[in-house]
Design brief:
By secondary structure, the protein is α+β, with helices and mostly antiparallel strands. It has 2 domains: 112 residues, Rieske Iron-sulfur Protein, CATH 2.102.10.10; 186 residues, Naphthalene 1,2-dioxygenase Alpha Subunit, Chain A, domain 1, CATH 3.90.380.10. The strands form 4 sheets. It has a 7-stranded antiparallel beta sheet, with helices on one face. It has a 4-stranded antiparallel beta sheet with strand order 5-6-7-8, with no helix packed on it. A 3-stranded antiparallel beta sheet has the order 1-10-9, with no helix packed on it. A hairpin with a 2-residue loop joins strand 12 and strand 13. It is elongated, with a radius of gyration of 22 Å.
Length: 317
């Protein structure tokens, strides 16, 4: 099994999948069917292929707690076991008649999938009940997941891509910072950036402290400012050059409306999007000699090393 399957991956907003609904998506180049059953409202996932004759299960329908294939009407229960073959009404399907299922978890407002013993990325701010939690996205991106993570870790672009919001060309210097490794992954400490408007509720420019954490190859988080507002980046890697992005906010701002917070996050990512989608090659080069680097790029260089050390190949070259 590829190293990428050692981690949980987000694939859908949990609140956008209704009971009895079937949807299809792609994860790590595998076609996936998701459904929420009508009995208990639980979410299930399997490879979007009936094991009988290969038809897409997402063309079928949910009957109670079971999924019925649209082609020959085979029915599968919540465990993926075939319970009925309509052409053979007296046939008892053996245990081998089953779907290729994924493990499913609901975390951070998203549906996550994995196979076997996988690691869920840690976003510590989620457990803080004094914070305000908000999910932003989905954002469809024609870029590799590693390119998107690297952009998230990059502070040097603030003054140019996010001028007058997260940076300004008159204050584009990035002071030296530290990159360390802990038991859970990669950490960027003591980073700072001068920002005209660091957040939706900011009223004046400030030199803002940043801490970044990479807890899984395609997920990252930052903590900024004196209050350490948290923003997590969660990515579904569909194909090597196609992804979906969500941001999970964990803020101490309890007054600004959801609409204003969402508008601010949408505005920031809309500025990033054409840049990230324009990068060539679209997959992230892991060999240092393929691109140029400077001292301000320590975080991205460390991230590329982290991917190499964890044998991550999806979305990289």
């Amino acid at each position: 099994m590829a190293a990428e399957w050692g981690y949980w991956h987000p694939v859908w907003r949990a609140d956008s999948l209704s009971p009895g609904e079937l949807v299809t998506t792609v994860l790590l180049s595998e076609q996936v069917v998701l459904w929420r059953d009508l009995d208990q409202g639980l979410i299930h996932a399997a490879v979007d292929r009936c094991p009988h004759r290969g038809a897409a299960l997402s063309l079928g329908r949910i009957e109670g707690g079971q999924l019925r294939c649209a082609y020959h009407g085979w029915c599968f229960d919540q465990r993926g076991q075939c319970t009925e073959v309509p052409a053979l009404p007296h046939f008892s399907p053996p245990k081998s008649f089953r779907l290729n299922r994924y493990d499913v978890r609901i975390e951070y407002g998203l549906v996550w999938l994995a196979r076997g013993n996988a690691q869920m990325p840690l976003f510590e701010a989620e457990a803080d009940t004094s914070r305000r939690h908000l999910l932003c996205g989905p954002y469809k991106v024609k870029a590799s997941a590693p390119r998107i993570v690297e952009n998230f870790l990059d502070m040097g672009h603030f003054a140019f891509v996010h001028e007058h919001l997260l940076g300004h060309r008159d204050h584009c210097e990035i002071p030296d910072y530290h990159v360390v490794h802990d038991a859970w992954g990669l950490v960027v400490e003591s980073a700072q950036a001068w920002q005209p408007k660091a957040s939706a509720d900011a009223s004046e420019a400030a030199l803002v402290d940043y801490r970044y954490e990479v807890r899984a190859p395609f997920q990252a988080a930052l903590y900024k400012g004196k209050q350490r507002d948290g923003i997590a980046l969660f990515i579904c890697p569909h194909e090597p050059e196609r992804s979906t992005v969500w941001f999970r906010l964990a803020l101490f701002d309890l007054e600004t409306s959801d609409d204003i917070l969402l508008e601010f996050q949408n505005r920031i990512f809309a500025q990033d999007l054409p840049i990230v989608e324009s990068q060539q090659p679209k997959c992230l080069p892991l060999e240092q000699s393929l691109e140029l680097h400077c001292a301000a790029d320590k975080a991205s260089v460390a991230y590329r090393r982290y991917l190499r050390e964890h044998a991550i190949r999806f979305g990289t070259i």
